[in-house]
């Protein structure tokens, strides 16, 4: 009941936060240099053509009137019309969010498992060869650019070894996948399409690995530092002196205490992963949310940029809410 009240309170606080994001995104996107109408019509378009296009998208109205129209549309679930494509922003975004969320959630989940296992293993062998190897891996993973790593993985995994499909989509079109959520692997599992499941999983391996290498580095360092702190604590030493079994020490003391700090960092890493998907999606032709948002920014597509910022802010707030709840469950000392 205590956690439920906390969740309801945080969800209510979400309203003014998102309203602030809407206002800032609306104003800042119009400060960007460039004319969105000229970007789609070209520099050779006449003033009459430009004026007609501005009237079509409501850009000839006052800034205050544009904002009220945009806010009224949001209240009814209408994110506006894309200046570049002329289609509904909500419909375009619905097709793009699923693939990106699938990529990010799988990558962050896998990174959490790897960081927890390797971080605790490294802490138990502090200052030995294995520990030094893990720390070097974390340093390299934190330093390597995602786009470079993605290109190397494509070169090795596809061009040289031929183990993975070409970076030109998310699933083999010949598998006859029925789209439901936009996340191809999820859709393949839900429709019990075996060939599509295998194909979607194969297409996911390289982009997921690209994201995991960069995401796992800060998580690994945090888990190792937390595990070392627990191993050197008086409570762990007392439990060990009482002759508890190694399994009890590991699961009851070391693992639970180490994971206490992980949810907040995982939420930050989740946001970083969303930003990293922009380059990863371009390398692997993923056609996801990040690639769509960047294209909207390059073409000064106001409705697309505003919707992208709003969705990213919503993801951040919800992920941190989940992190706070998990933190409270892992650590009873936390009062919500």
UniProtKB/TrEMBL annotation:
Keywords: Cell membrane, Membrane, Transmembrane, Transmembrane helix, Transport. It is a multi-pass membrane protein. It comes from Micromonospora marina. GO terms for cellular component: plasma membrane. The keyword Oxidoreductase does not apply. It is found in: Cell membrane. Residues 97-323 form the ABC transmembrane type-1 domain. This is Peptide/nickel transport system permease protein. The chain crosses the membrane at residues 12-32, 103-123, 144-164, 200-220, 265-284, 304-330.
């Amino acid at each position: 009941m205590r956690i439920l009240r906390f969740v309801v309170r945080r969800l209510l606080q979400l309203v003014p936060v998102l309203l602030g994001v809407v206002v800032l995104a609306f104003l800042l996107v119009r400060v960007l240099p460039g004319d969105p109408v000229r970007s789609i019509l070209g520099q050779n378009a006449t003033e009459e053509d430009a004026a007609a296009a501005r009237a079509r998208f409501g850009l000839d109205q006052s800034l205050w009137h544009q904002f009220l129209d945009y806010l009224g549309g949001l209240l009814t679930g209408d994110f506006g019309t894309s200046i570049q494509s002329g289609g509904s922003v909500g419909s375009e975004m619905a097709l793009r969010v699923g693939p990106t969320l699938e990529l990010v959630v799988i990558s962050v989940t896998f990174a959490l498992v790897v960081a927890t296992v390797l971080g605790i293993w490294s802490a138990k062998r502090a200052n030995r060869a294995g520990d030094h190897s893990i720390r070097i891996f974390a340093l390299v993973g934190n330093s390597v650019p995602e786009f470079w790593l993605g290109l190397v993985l494509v070169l090795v995994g596809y061009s040289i070894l031929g183990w993975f499909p070409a970076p030109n989509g998310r699933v083999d079109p010949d598998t006859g996948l029925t789209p439901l959520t936009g996340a191809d692997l999820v859709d393949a599992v839900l429709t019990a399409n075996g060939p599509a499941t295998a194909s979607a999983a194969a297409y996911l391996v390289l982009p997921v690995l690209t994201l995991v290498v960069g995401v796992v580095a800060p998580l690994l360092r945090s888990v190792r530092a937390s595990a070392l702190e627990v191993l050197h604590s008086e409570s762990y030493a007392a439990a060990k002196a009482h002759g508890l079994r190694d399994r009890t020490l590991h699961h009851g003391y070391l693992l639970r205490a180490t994971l206490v700090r992980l949810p907040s960092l995982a939420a930050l890493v989740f946001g970083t992963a969303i930003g990293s998907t922009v380059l990863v999606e371009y390398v692997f032709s993923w056609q996801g949310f990040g690639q769509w948002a960047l294209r909207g920014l390059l073409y000064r597509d106001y409705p697309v940029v505003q919707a992208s910022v709003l969705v990213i802010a919503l993801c951040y707030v919800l992920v941190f809410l989940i992190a706070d709840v998990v933190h409270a469950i892992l650590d009873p000392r936390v009062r919500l």
